[in-house]
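Renewal narrative, Specific Aim 1. Our central claim is that a sequence can be written position by position from structural information alone. The example that follows is taken directly from our test logs and has not been curated for this report. It begins with the structure tokens describing the chain, in the order in which they were read.
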């Protein structure tokens, strides 16, 4: 039986540098549960992520907006900033523009 071991680190937040890897070689941070490789642009990229909900939300907020397909500031296509004040706490009121 042949054992293959990738480059690895058990130091939290440790990321390999471009000089640590050759293109396509894998490195894993076993503490963070993240997998890295070097791409054809000589950049180290993360190929697998174990993100928390807060990390995912932070990442999504960087791409939200018109044309992103996300539009987190809208409810059923209506911009929440156009909502009027209503007396029913369980209802969102919209005005058309």
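The sequence written for that structure reads:
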């Amino acid at each position: 039986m042949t054992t293959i071991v990738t480059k690895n680190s058990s130091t939290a937040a440790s990321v390999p540098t471009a000089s640590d890897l050759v293109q396509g070689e894998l490195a894993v941070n076993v503490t963070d549960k993240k997998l890295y490789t070097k791409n054809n642009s000589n950049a180290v990229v993360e190929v697998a992520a174990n993100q928390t909900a807060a990390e995912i939300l932070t990442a999504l907020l960087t791409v939200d907006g018109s044309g992103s397909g996300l539009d987190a500031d809208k409810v059923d296509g209506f911009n929440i900033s156009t909502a009027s004040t209503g007396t029913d706490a369980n209802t969102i009121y919209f005005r058309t523009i």
